[in-house]
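Section 3.1: Structural characterization of target chains.
Under the original work plan, the team committed to producing a structural model for every single-chain target entering the pipeline before any wet-lab resources were allocated. The record below documents one such target. The sequence was received from the expression subgroup and is listed exactly as submitted; it comprises 238 residues.
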Amino acid sequence: MIFSAGLGTRFKPWTDKHPKALATVNGKPLLQRNIEYLQSFGMKDIIVNVHHFANQIKEAIEKNSGWGSNIIISDERNEVLETGGGLLKAKGLFTPGEKFITCNVDILTNLDISKLITFHKESKALISFAVTNRKTSRYLLFDENNRLCGWRNTKTGEERISIQKANLIEKAYSCVVVFEYDIFEIMEEYNFSGKFSLIDVYLKLAADHCIMGYDHSGDLLVDVGKPESVAIAASVFT
């Protein structure tokens, strides 16, 4: 699933008239780049959620025949649900019992997803996501075995600790995630509904379930969240 429903408020003025998913880097929309990225690992059945200028995204997918993939739209035009709510709404579009990948349309990376999946299987995790040691203001916190224990905002000093341990390690979230299908039932058991973020899910579940961070520091990763980041992305993603 590619999360593409955001309002893109940091990406104005483009997002005053277009969805961020169709902003281009070297002539290719971010959505196309992520679809082709997933294709490079053999993934062609893709869910795309839409809200902001939803029709433009649907038209681009239809015009380009899904860029060679089978695209299913999860329509969120009635309400922005954030990543967690968007995932839960799309439950019926996934194959029961099969693990799956999610990513964000505005993140470009050359992370090797096959290595992330291998790590996930070896860890016997419910959820495994990619992280790096890059600098940010909001960090996920891990123990020495790469298990998620909490979250920290270094600007505000706010912390949310799920597992109390000493010497927690700060890592930055890369937004590429492997889930077991069981996540849907577990989110419902924990009474998640409506609008919520995946970070909230991770932190609420971390004490009782194995949630792991896969460090891929050294790989390319650009958050194309602001117009000025397009030039940075264009310099490394041809």
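The CA atoms of residues 130 and 224 lie 17 Å apart.
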